[in-house]
Automatic annotation (TrEMBL):
It is found in: Cell inner membrane. This is ABC-type dipeptide transporter. It comes from Enterobacter cloacae. Residues 6-223 form the ABC transporter domain. One of its GO terms (cellular component) is plasma membrane.
Amino acid sequence: MTEQRVIVDALNIDYPAARVVNSLSFTLGNERLALVGESGSGKSMSARALMGLVRKPGIVSANRLNVLGNDLLTLSTRRWQALRGNGIAMVLQDPRYALNPAKNVAAQLDEALTLHQRLPRAERRARIHDIIRAVGLNEHVLQRYPGELSGGMGQRVMIAIALINNPQVLIADEPTSALDARLRNQILELLVQQSEERQMAMLLISHDLPLVAEHCDRVLVMY
C-alpha cells in the first residue's frame, strides 16, 4: 500500500442555494486516480477544495481533508501559499483562460518558480529550459505569448507551469476536453509519463472513459 498523499473523508461543499458536493470520500497514494461523473456532479469543485480555491459564500466541511500531512480545514494563508503550487499543483481545462495573455511563456514559468523557491537567475533559467523540453516543446516557445500558441502547445505550457516546482500531487481538471482526439492522447500520455518519472500522484478529472481506462489505476464515480 502506498503512502496516502491525499485523504478526503466526508467532504461537503455548500452554497446558500444548494449543497454541491455531498459526503465525498477517497484517498490518493502514489498512483493515478480518475474522478469521473456527469456535468454538475461536483468534480471540479472537489478539486478546488483540495487547492483551497472555494471562495465565499461557499463553505467547505469534512471529517478529514488532508494533503501531504496538512489539515486543509485549519491551514493558514501562509501555509497555503507554501503548499499550493509546490506540494500540490493543478492543470486547468483551457489555456486560453488560465494563461496570462500579457506575459510570455518564459515570464510565466519564472513567476511560478520564484513564488516558491529562491534560486539564482542562472539556475532558474536552466530549470525553465529543462521543463519546457520535458513537456515536448522547443525552447523558442519561451518567447511566445499565449495568443501565439496552438491549443496543444498551450496545454503543454500549463503542464510545465504546474510541474516546475516538482509537486508530489497533481490535479488535472479536464486537461484534454478542449483538444481534438489526437492531441487528447498526446497530452494524457505526457501526464502519465511525467507522473511516473517524478513519482507524482495524479488526480485526473475527466468524462472521457476510454482515456481514463487506459491511463488510470482506479476510478471514482461522482453522481
